[in-house]
Amino acid sequence: xxxxxxxxxxxxxxxxxxxxxxxxxxxxxxxxxxxxxxxxxxxxxxxxxxxxxxxxxxxxxxxxxxxxxxxxxxxx
Length: 76
Description:
Strand content: 5-15%
Strand order of the largest sheet: 1-2
Radius of gyration: 16 Å
Helix content: 55-70%
Largest sheet: 2 strands, antiparallel
């Protein structure tokens, strides 16, 4: 069943679009951040990357809350 988008107000559509955009950007940021960090083990790094990739909207939030401070910056 398709939804007629013209029945929604432009403000509501803009709000939903902004929320989706923020969630997607947060997921991309979590993937980028985890990729360039050194975690206590390689398995933990892969788990955080999998969470950010396979749980697109919530995975970025989970990484931000629990995984962000677990890794440290890679030394060049």
